Amino acid sequence: MGLTNVDSDLLPGTLELLVLKTLLREPRHGYGIVEHLRVASGDALEIGESALYPALQRLLLNGWVKASWGASENNRRARFYTLTASGRKQLEKERATFARRIEIVQRVLEA
Amino acid sequence: MRWLRRLHYWLNRRRIEDALREEMETHRALREAALAERGESTPAAASRRALGNVALAQDDARDVWIWPWLDGVVRDAKFALRWMRRRPGFAGTCIATIAIGTGALASVLSVVHAVLLSPPPYPNHARIVQIAQVSPTSGRLLDELSAADVLALRQRGGAIENVTTAWSSAVSLSGGSLPERGRMVFTDSRAFAMLGTPPAIGRLPTLADDAPDAPPVVMLGHTLWAQQFASDPSAIGRPLKIDGRTYGVIGVMPQGFRFPAPYWSGADLWLLRGAADASWPTTREGNLLAFGLIAEGATLEGAQPEADAAAASLDARFPAAGQIGLRLVPYGHTVRSYARPRLLLILGAAVLVLLIVCVNIVNLMLGRSLERHRELAARAALGAGRGRLVRQLITETVVLFTAGGLGGVLLAIWGSRAIVAVSSFSIPRMEEAAINGPVAGIALGTVLVSALIVGMVIAVQATSRGRLGLDAAGARGASEGRRWRGLQRVLVAAEVALAFVLLCGAGVLVDGARAQSHITAGFDASTIVHARLTLPRDKYADATSQRDVLTRIVHALAAIPGVRAAGTVDVPPGVGGSNERALSLDTDPPPANARDLRQVNVRIADAHYFETLGLTARAGRLFTPADHDADNVVVVNEAFVATHLGGAPAVGRRIRVVPRGATAAVTPMRTIVGVYPDIREKTIFEPTPPTVYLPIDARDATRMAVLVRTDRPVGEMTQAMRAAIASVDSEQAAFGFMTLGDLIESELSINALSLRLLGSLGIVALLLAVIGVYGVMAQAVRQRTREIAIRLALGVTPPGVKRLLLGECSLLVAGGFLAGGAAALWAARVLRSLVYGISSTSPLTFVTVAALLAVAVLAGCYIPARRAARTDPALVLRAE
For chain A, is the Cβ count within 10 Å smaller at the N or the C terminus? Predict the structure, then answer.
């Protein structure tokens, strides 16, 4: 799988779910999220900026994450995203939805 | 919550977008560092490649925040502006039309706002009340109180504080830079305490200044201060000679201060001479405006019982006056309610004009959208949904209306000034009319709502399934066209109907104005200065002493240099009073009961009254100084002769005028000695009632008016008349100095304003209707070129084509008249009830208006019809 810059490479809404999950453990900046997803997926997922940033805006708009400025590893100014309480709830919900969806797809494939 | 975040984004979008750019650059730098670590040869380029299209990513990010439709609307608006630039003529016509409609609406609204809606311009306005007398007979509210009323209210105290009075007069000033005439208001220190407006410089008067023996002081208006004292602060303390008496200037009121604003807005200065200066309470006849301040924490309703109690105590003291109530009303209530129906009527007319504008725009835009149907169909074919096209058409309309609305508000700045300039100031606070925030807001809001409705109509029509289904290649869609033309015709007919209603309204007013201009007062009212005086009954108890003092006053007045004649009468002409009494003629059989008697208007007049008005007897003679009541002589007017004597010779006939409370049997017969010409005895608008003039000692003559005929200005005359009256009886007060012309003018002015406004609106409506009909016919002709060409080719002559089109047009006009006729008749009736002096409207007015409208509309049709007749059939058909 190459660089994922388009939402449709994943199931719709999946990117948001993955970002929420990524932020569950600790606040991260954009590059940190991408790197975490890459490592966690065993180099399978390489999210491009043009997919990541609109997704982050959607999360911000819905109030699921908060952003604050901090210093990155190389001491640049970077925006760190933190999961909010409603984001946590959303993560649970999306997780369940996603599981059901996969299950449905599986059922069809195995039928 | 989401919308709040969106709003936050929208407000800070530049900062947030910059931050996003920075964030993405950080992202790239981190990636570059990582790539370099991994041994990439050109990490910067690779990181940039990985980043992809930054601008696109940022656009996508922004789209999350900005409502997509809002963005779409902006894009549509830009498209609409481009489209308008391409069709400047069409867009210009639409915008101009809307601007005219909005301008008319906003101008009228500015007047409505100033007169009816805005609170009085004083800091304490919420607590200021006006106190009115309730007429014992009609129950109407009368603005003017007597000094006795004011005193009674002050004595009660309680929740009504600072009861104060005001009346106005013209004065001559000297002591400043130039001798000048000024307009002053008599009031007292309580007025300033009540209003709460601080002075620009100097101090406000205090109760000490009201004391009769205190040095006389005066507050200056800002304009007068600027003109007479060149805005010099040292004016404070300087003496100012007003009508020959010296006053000390104690303060200057701020720019724009007016009191009492609805009544005498143009006041230049305020003299501290309150109610106590008037002839002291012998009567409840009102001549003072009275105001009060509701105590802090009290309400108008809560304070009303105090006024009732004061009225009850007055009833006990003046049993003869009848039970005159006292009512607390919001400031300026009575004058406002007087102006309200007419202003609302004119506002209604302005709304009608806007309606015509909307119909016009629907017509023009629909015509255009038919021409544009290929563009719309192409866009539909390329995947634009109906919603998308509807949105675009509505946006276009809103853009047009916004442009027109803004233009209209600008027009209205001029328009409201023009209204103020033509109106006289007898309409309260009229001069404050201006385009301000609220007025512009209401006007633009109305325009935007109209825009949405018009846009909806256009969009739904233009994108109806059948029409968009047509292929873009140019199918003619004849049946579609026919259906749509039907709608367009209905709209044009509606427009003609609306214009007809407005023009009929204007016609009714013109009719009234013409009647008014024909029927003058009957004498030259502008050269007659009058004043009212009330003789104290304890001093002048009987008719003889009253006659005596009045005769001496009249002599003194006649001796003033520049006075050509002076006289006295109980009710001067033109002020609206009537005094009906029972009448029987020498030829009448004795009536079975008193109700069957004839009624006649009675005036008491001295020998000089008639010549003061400048008229001479039509027959017989008028009174001479030798005529007394005992002589049993009367003068009658021409209306009397016509009504009661059937036009037969009157001199020598004998009549009985029955006083109230007496019977015909005990009333002496009186002989008619002369006939006086008809003058407008009641209001200028009302036909002269049959009138009998009696000598002044025939009735109680304590409430009289003195009149002088002079060419000298009223200000100077006031001085001289006061002096003359004082020379006879130094304690006798007189008030209400003004020319009968001004008195009549103030009654005419609101009628004149209605006429001018409604007349202008009617003309605007006419123009709009013509533009609308022209536009529709021009489009219809363009669309029917082929049909017309075929007709011509088949042998219809060019005049025949013209006739055909004009015939169709006539049908539209006729339809409009039918629809508008009933509404116009109703509107005319409403108008007649609202505007004085229009008793009936001749059918000729309606016919004239209809003819005018028909000619104008047909002229609008004629140009396209002529163009159609000139069609070269060969050229058109070959082009097919």
Answer: C
Contact B838, B512 (CB under 8 A): yes
Range of the domain at A46: 3-110
> Do B584 and B655 meet the contact criterion of CB atoms below 8 Å apart?
yes
Tokens of B402: 């916004």
B755 and B673 in a common domain: no
On whether any CB of chain B is under 8 Å from the CB of A63, the answer is: yes
Q: Are B49 and B91 found together in one domain?
A: no
How near does any CA of chain A get to the CA of B42, in Å?
A: 18
The predicted pLDDT at position B471 comes to 43
Residue B432 sits in which domain range? Answer: 69-120+339-475
Nearest chain A CA: its distance from B58 CA (Å):
8
The total domain count for chain A is: 1
CATH code (residue A83): 1.10.10.10
Q: Looking at the structure, tell me whether residues B94 and B129 fall in a common domain.
A: no
- Number of other CB atoms surrounding residue B646 within 10 Å: 7
Q: Are B633 and B627 in contact (CB under 8 A)?
A: yes
Residue B736 lies in a domain: no
H or E element: which one contains A73? Answer: none
Give domain status of residue B844, yes or no.
Answer: yes
On whether any CB of chain B is under 8 Å from the CB of A70, the answer is no
How many residue pairs from chains A and B have C-beta atoms closer than 8 A? 80
| A-interface mutation test, from B23, B25, B31, most A Cβ less than 10 A away | B23
Q: What is the number of structural domains in chain B?
A: 5
CA angle, B57 as apex, B54 and B58 as ends, to 5°?
Answer: 85
In this structure, are B143 and B102 located in the same domain?
no
Contacts of A58 in chain B (CB under 8 A): 64
- Residue among A29, A61, A72 whose CB faces B65 most closely: A61
Q: Which two tokens stand for residue B809?
A: 């047009």
Chain A closest CA to B388's CA: distance in Å? Answer: 25
The total of other beta-carbon atoms located within 10 Å of residue B248's CB is 14
Q: Is residue B477 scored above 80 in pLDDT? A: no
pLDDT digits (tens, 9 = 90+) for B67-126: 666 777 777 888 888 877 887 778 888 888 899 899 999 998 998 888 888 777 788 888
Tell whether B373 is covered by a domain. yes
Q: Do A62 and B2 touch (CB under 8 A)?
A: yes
